[in-house]
Specification:
The protein is α+β, with helices and mostly antiparallel strands and 446 residues long. The chain has helices at 3-22, 71-74, 96-101, 103-116, 122-125, 128-134, 159-170, 265-271, 294-297, 354-362, 390-393, and strands spanning 47-52, 55-64, 67-70, 135-137, 142-144, 152-155, 186-188, 194-196, 201-202, 205-208, 217-220, 224-225, 228-234, 253-260, 263-264, 285-287, 292-293, 301-302, 322-323, 326-332, 340-346, 373-375, 401-402, 408-409, 417-425, 430-441. A hairpin with a 2-residue loop joins strand 1 (47-52) and strand 2.
Length: 446
């Protein structure tokens, strides 16, 4: 190994070890005050893209407490051997270029940011002129999609969800299709309709066949649903024809967001045979604005689900890559004073891991690119309160879902505001994702 590379490796290792020791401390170690219930603790430092009314330029920022650190303003302080050569990535309007740098640059940047934000580090703390330029109140910021998403893939990786849906449509004895326990089932979605939290979602129209003995009808979906999901962004991609081996998959996973993959169940039910979802899915997918880096989630890693039968060799990995992330979904109808939590789930219920999803996605030589988005599929647990869709919660419309103020639902009504939240719980701090929110607006009238 060349001397320069040895220095880079040692520098990154020292920063990482230093950062890991500091993770045992509470959020008070930052000079930025952070409430212990804030999603954006010192231990998180998620990345996002924001602008402000005073400055419409889209910038890359890091969230801490109720503040955003503008990385374009402090890039000169990022002096590590990896990132100092590539500071221009922090002047970009998306995270794609930073994602492309790879895991060693991500680790180095994170460690440097934690050092700069420490309570006992004066470089940024005592430079009031720089702090005035670099820090922005989150309340004053407009958030944008964190990356230019070239491709979007949705998996179907929750066993409980797949079983529930299978029972509804095929019966208990044939709930899971023969391939489900052998590979991470997925399909390619529509990247153009992935939107940032807060974007209204228009009720889609399409063909439906509510009466199986009559011809289909056209109109607004009557069974509009949510899907409680999470997704990860790809960092460095792979060349066409060269798969990402599962042993290297973690080096290509940049970070995670919350996702609501809105679904029109009645449109989907009529169209999906034989090629799968189309108009029932591609009208809108909402993601949260802050991308939580995988390093921030590693303290919450859990053993992987035991997979039986054992997957084929290209899908096997022993190292844990399942995460204890508490997930919630709520609905607030128009005129309701408060939202009602309808689902409490957890990412640890996933059967297939993100490493397995990425390895399977590329095993045929499919090339991935920085900023590609890969989603988990609906995350449901074993108990009814952990079901991650209205399809399951109402059991295909046969059960009433009780909301606050005497409201009820089976599927979504116009004016309903759906909010997804999620966080990992540390000792006196959280590593959270903020919120993923969207409001249903009426279908377009002829």
């Amino acid at each position: 190994m060349a001397a320069g590379n040895i220095w880079k490796a040692l520098f990154t290792l020292l920063l990482t070890l230093k950062s890991a020791r500091e993770l045992n401390c509470k959020s008070e170690m930052s000079f930025i005050k952070v409430d212990e219930n804030s999603d954006f603790s010192f231990h998180n430092l998620p990345y996002g893209v924001f602008s402000t009314p005073a400055n419409a330029r889209r910038r890359i920022g890091v969230a801490i407490g109720d503040q955003i650190v503008d990385l374009s303003a402090i890039k000169h302080l990022l002096t590590g051997p990896e990132v100092s050569q590539h500071r221009h990535v922090f002047d970009q309007p998306t995270l794609n270029a930073f994602m492309a740098l790879g895991s060693s640059a991500w680790r180095e940047t994170r460690a440097l940011l934690q050092t700069l934000l420490r309570a006992d580090e004066p470089t940024l703390r005592d430079n009031h002129e720089l702090r005035g330029r670099a820090f922005v109140d989150q309340s004053a910021a407009v958030m944008h999609l964190p990356a230019e998403i070239g491709d979007y893939t949705d998996f179907y990786s929750s066993r409980d969800h797949a079983t529930n849906v299978g029972i509804m449509f095929r019966g208990k004895d044939n709930a899971l299709m023969p391939n489900w326990l052998r590979l991470p089932v997925g399909y390619h979605g529509r990247a153009s309709s992935v939107v940032i939290s807060g974007t209204p979602i228009r009720r889609p129209q399409g063909q439906m066949r509510p009466d199986p003995v009559k011809p289909p009808v056209f109109g607004p979906s009557k069974q509009l649903d949510i899907e409680l999901e999470m997704a990860f962004f790809v960092g460095p991609g792979n060349r066409l024809g060269e798969p990402i081996p599962i042993e290297k998959a973690h080096e290509h996973i940049f970070g995670m967001v919350l996702m609501n993959d809105w679904s029109a169940r009645d449109i989907q039910a009529w169209e999906y045979v034989p090629l799968g979802p189309f108009l029932g899915k591609n009208f809108g997918t909402t993601i949260s604005p802050w991308v939580v880096p995988m390093e921030a989630l590693m303290p919450f890693v859990e053993p992987n689900t035991v997979q039986d039968p054992e997957p084929l060799p290209y899908l096997r990995h022993q190292d844990p890559y399942t995460f204890n992330i508490n997930l919630f979904a709520s609905i607030k109808g128009e005129g309701m004073k408060e939202a009602t939590t309808i689902c409490k789930s957890n990412f640890k219920y996933m059967y297939w891991t993100m490493k397995q999803q990425l390895a399977h996605h590329t095993v045929n030589g499919c090339n991935s690119r920085p900023g590609d988005l890969l989603a988990s599929g609906t995350i449901s647990g074993p108990d009814p309160e952990s079901f991650g869709s209205l399809l399951e919660l109402s059991w295909r419309g046969s059960k009433i879902i009780e909301l606050a103020g005497g409201e009820t639902r089976t599927f979504l009504k116009d004016g309903d505001e759906v909010t997804l939240t999620g966080y990992c719980e540390g000792q006196g701090y959280r590593v959270g994702f903020g919120s993923c929110q969207g409001k249903i607006i009426p279908a377009l009238q002829k």
